Structures are given as C-alpha cells and as structure tokens.
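Work Package 3 committed the consortium to producing structural models of liganded targets before the mid-term review. Because experimental data for this complex are still outstanding, the team generated a predictive model from sequence and the ligand definition alone, so that downstream docking and mutagenesis planning could proceed in parallel. The input record is reproduced below exactly as it was submitted to the modelling pipeline, together with the SMILES string for fe (ii) ion.
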Amino acid sequence: MRRISHISDLHFGRTDPAVVEALVDELNGDAPDLIVASGDFTMAARPSEFAQARAFLNRLSSPWIGVPGNHDISPYDLVQRFARPFARYRHAIAQDTEPCFADGEIGVVCLNTVRRWAPEPDWSHGVIRRSQIARTEARLAAMPEYLFKIVVGHHPFRPPRWDEEARLVGRADLALAAFRRCGVGLTLAGHLHRHYARFALEDDSGAEAVDQGVMRGCRGRLLTVQAGSATSTRLRGNEPNAYNRITIAEGCASVSVRVWDGGGWVDAAPA
Ligand SMILES: [Fe+2]
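The resulting structure, written out as tokens with the ligand in place, is given here.
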C-alpha cells in the first residue's frame, strides 16, 4: 500500500501564510510515502518566490517529486524565458523537469507540459510533444509490470464535467491513449485550480465510481485526477484551497480531497 499527497498550484508570491503553515503541519503530521507537486510553484517565477517554494519543500518530511507549471517561467524577463526558461526552476526546485520515481509498488513518470511561446495570444496553455509521448512510453515500459503506474503533468488531460470545452494540454488524447497502452492507472495534474477526477474517454462509462467522497480507479481503467490550488489566494469560483490524498492498494487508486475551511484542513464533503 502506498499513500500519495497530490498538491498543485502553490503559487508562492500569492499565498495565504496560514494555509501554508497548516499544510506543512498536515503533510508532516501524517506523512505520505510520496508528495506529488503538479506545477505552478510560483506566481511569476521571481527568485524570491522560488526561494519561498524551496523553503516550503525543505520543511516536508516525505520525499517529493514535481513538474514546472506555466507560472514557473518568467512572464517578464523574455530573454530568460526564451534562452533558459527553466533556469530558476532548476536552481530552486529541481534540476530535472521530468523526473521519475519508482519503489516496490508505484512508478511515477513526470512530463513538462510548459511552453515558452505559442502561436496564439495566450501562452499559458500547455502541450505534450510527440517526442515526449515516446519518451514517456519508453520510461513506463522500462518499469516492472507489477508497479501501479502514474503520469504527472501540470496541464489537464481531461475536462471537468461542468465544462466539457475546457482547454486541455495539447495532444491530451494521443498521450492518454499511449498511457493506456502502457497500463497507466492514474494521471495527476492541476492548472485549473479545480479538483475533480474523471476516467479517460475510452474508460468513461458516464458513471463516476464515487463512494463516500472517494473516487476509485483500478489498473486497466485510467483515472485522470485534478487538484485544486493548495495554498494560493488566486482561487476560481467557490473552490477552496484543496489537495488530494491518494491510496494505492491492490492495483487500485482511491482519491479523496482535503479542503481548507478557513480554519483548518478537513475532508471535502461527498459530492
Ligand atoms: Fe498553471
């Protein structure tokens, strides 16, 4: 059995200090086997913001793995954005923007979906290049078959049910098809600051496997999971700060959501 805490969109530079402190206590108080951080550690990739993110990571007692988000490359310093977009991320967070993790039960492959430029006005959307899909397939294939496999990116792989037109990471369909072929059971992402979980299109019967607020996905049926923003004051709609708690056991993933109620972290009310 493995326990994962999935945090996302921390956005240091625009966080609520009380939420940050309580999150550190919460994550360390019942330490998971792994923390996955699915991007947007900062607000605008400023060195001071990265320093705050690094200080947060240094306080965590569990191992962690992460990917950059679109906010983790500078929107102001265009020379840096184009020449060395991930230099600050590599310096403060992690040298590798696409790390892997494997132990005796789970295998995690990370994808960097951030673009420095796009042929459209909004450069915040993400994409997966064909070469990244091929590399991810090779990395997954190199892992033992019995591991429960997870892919992490910043931008969403599936839209929420309440917004079927939501912009997804570019080549989401191709990527999910490849992940399914590789036996991936779970994808973890953020960016939208909304938490939800949904099966990949081919595995989606329309009915969610939700019981008492816990979403369950099993190997052979790919579940795509989104996290809310764990610590940012930049929230969407009525969504509170949130993160996901995931338990992997016997080939299945159970996903529940923790939310900030204004005074502490509590279980989200069953949907
Ligand atoms: Fe983002």
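Reviewers should note the following from the model. The radius of gyration is 17 Å. These observations will guide the Year 2 experiments.
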